[in-house]
Amino acid sequence: MSKAKYRKGGKITSLDELVKQDFVYWRDKITHKGWFMSWQFRMTCNAINHGVISYAIKKEDEIK
């Protein structure tokens, strides 16, 4: 018999916190975050993690 690797904690209250987790409890069952992420959202997360998205700052803002 194997020991449980996780225990149920407090509720996640934001999308930011959710995407920071590798595993979560979904209806009392341990679940990997990839199970509930849409493909479009996953592509966005990957782009952010690989550093290919940057801010676009107006040049006139830099002059002031």
Explain briefly what this protein structure is.
The protein has helices at residues 15-19, 39-49, 59-63, and strands at 23-26, 29-32. It has 64 residues and is of the alpha+beta class. It has one domain (15-63).
If you had to describe this structure to a student in words, what would you say it looks like?
With 64 residues, the protein is α+β, with helices and mostly antiparallel strands. The chain has one domain. Helix content is 33%, strand content 12%. It is built from three helices and two strands. A two-stranded antiparallel ribbon has the order 1-2. It is elongated, with a radius of gyration of 18 Å. It starts with 14 loop residues before the first helix and ends with a helix.
SSE series: HEEHH
- Can you list the strand order of the major beta sheet? 1-2
Mean pLDDT across every amino acid position = 82
Q: Mind telling me the C-alpha Rg? A: 18 Å
Distance between the termini: 66 Å
Tell me the number of structural domains.
1
Strand content: 5-15%
Count the beta strands.
Answer: 2
